[in-house]
Design goal:
- The structure is a single chain.
- This protein is α+β, with helices and mostly antiparallel strands.
- 31% of the residues lie in helices and 40% in strands.
- It contains five helices and ten strands.
- The strands form two sheets. Strands 1, 7, 8, 9 and 10 form a five-stranded antiparallel beta sheet that branches. Strands 2-3-6-4-5 form a five-stranded antiparallel beta sheet, sandwiched between helices.
- The mean pLDDT is 95.
Length: 209
């Protein structure tokens, strides 16, 4: 189950349009405070730039949407980036597009295209990804049962994580929530009912597009 789309990691992209240099920095974030800190760091790094245009969208329902034109004509830079992010269902992201003015004015439409295209380039470098909601079932079982389960051919995606080898084996089995019932039936069958569920939880995992 896909909760939302974001980027996998930080990204940086650069392009030159009509002699103006545009540098896009992109980062996945989970809070406005984290986004604000990133914006402040980029502005400090490029304090000699003509403009440092920030934009952020945060929350699985795009609850936080904020941008600044940082001296560019109103509505030509930050706001279009936010609109682009929302239209493409990208959230939990902060973008800062830095501009070094090259002497040629781009006009309203030109600025919108320059800033949004720069942001898109940064997103491509950062790696578009989906954040999926998965079920994690933690089992405790003996070694023979663990070998059976690990070598079993599942007809759905199964990921073994956080495996701890001790007197018994404790491991987390991560699956799509719709497969949780089938997993439990399979493990019960393979173990003769001896595998014990220690914990069940929901986790969010990034999957590259």
């Amino acid at each position: 189950m896909i909760r939302y789309s974001t980027v996998f990691e930080e990204g940086l992209a650069e392009q030159t349009i009509e002699r103006s240099r545009f540098i896009a920095h992109v980062k996945p974030v989970s809070s406005k405070e984290e986004a604000d800190a990133f914006i402040a760091a980029i502005k400090k790094q490029y304090k000699d730039a003509t403009h440092n245009v920030p934009a952020m969208v945060i929350g699985d329902k795009f609850q936080v949407q904020w941008a600044s034109d940082d001296g560019e004509p109103q509505g030509t830079s930050g706001a279009p980036i936010v609109q682009m992010l929302v239209q493409e269902n990208i959230t939990n992201i902060v973008v800062v597009v830095t501009r070094y003015f090259g002497g040629i004015k781009l006009g309203t439409g030109g600025l919108v295209r320059a800033y949004t295209s720069s942001a898109k380039l940064g997103i491509q470098v950062a790696g578009p990804c989906d954040v999926k909601e998965l079920s994690a079932v933690t089992y405790r079982m003996d070694y023979s049962v663990f070998n059976k389960v690990q070598n079993f051919y599942f007809t759905y995606d199964v990921k073994f994580a956080n495996i701890v080898y001790a007197d018994t084996v404790t491991c987390e089995i991560v699956i799509d929530p719709s497969c949780a019932g089938a997993l439990k039936e399979t493990v019960t069958s393979l173990s003769g009912g001896k595998a014990v569920i220690v914990n069940e939880s929901v986790r969010l995992d990034k999957v590259r597009k």
